[in-house]
Amino acid sequence: MKSKHTAFLFLLTLLSTVLHNISYGQDIDSVNFCNTKWRTSAVDKGIYWKQANIIDLFNSRQEVNIIEIDLKKHNKSLRLAALANSLKKTSTLAQQHHAIVAINGGFFNMKNGGAVDFIKVEDTIVNTTASPSLRANAYFAFNSRKTIITTDSSQTSPYPNVLLSGPLLVKDSRQQQLAKNAFNDNRHPRTAIALKGNKLILCTVDGRNANSQGLNLEELSKILRWYGCHDAMNLDGGGSTTMYIKGQPDEGIVNYPSDNKQFDHLGERSVANIIYIFSKK
């Protein structure tokens, strides 16, 4: 009887230690992220660029770039640019459309160009969904007054600009449950878009390099929630992950695109669509 009691206490202590260590690890990551000292630059009135190389996040090193956009000032300047059957670099599309800031958008056909998921620009459907995917379960939609992230396609009908991508990461400040698969679970460069009150958040995390190892989608969800985003969705990542800011060196590319396998600003991949803020200047 005494040996059973001792064994029970041992198992209880072991379980408590494991749970404590798991909780402690999560707390350390959230503290490390929330205590990050961002290099912050004003891009324009109501637009701020934040950059950091975080040395210890999820037992890895991560290069994170965030653009915060005040939608009270810039919702009317929010745009999509989309190519129906071709591809161009994010920087090229951004410059051609007089963007002040931009990120790459949704998934696309790498051979023939064009989005593989539904995209509508100024009430014109540019591409329809080629093949429905569980991955593409979130819509980014906006007009001149309002911007939403939703999983309900019926909510997007009044909006002239709609981009289908995903998966959805955060909804109503709650991290979403993600399917277990290689796309979600493996670490890659990532691009995401989110809403934080009246601010639109553009986010890139670089990867495939010792200077930035990339995130899985659970980790990406966590940092967006820690950042205070109440709604967030994943966009095309990997070699497509690109952030553009007008006036910056290297054609405006401020992150480290991975397509050339170098940790520099020159490894852009051509894409089919971008999300950007139009500059009147």
Automatic annotation (TrEMBL):
Signal peptide span: 1-21
Record domain Phosphodiester glycosidase: where: 98-278
Keyword terms, alphabetized: Glycosidase, Hydrolase, Signal
Keyword check for rRNA-binding: no
A GO MF term: hydrolase activity, acting on glycosyl bonds
Protein name, as recorded: Phosphodiester glycosidase family protein
UniProt organism field: Sphingobacterium faecale
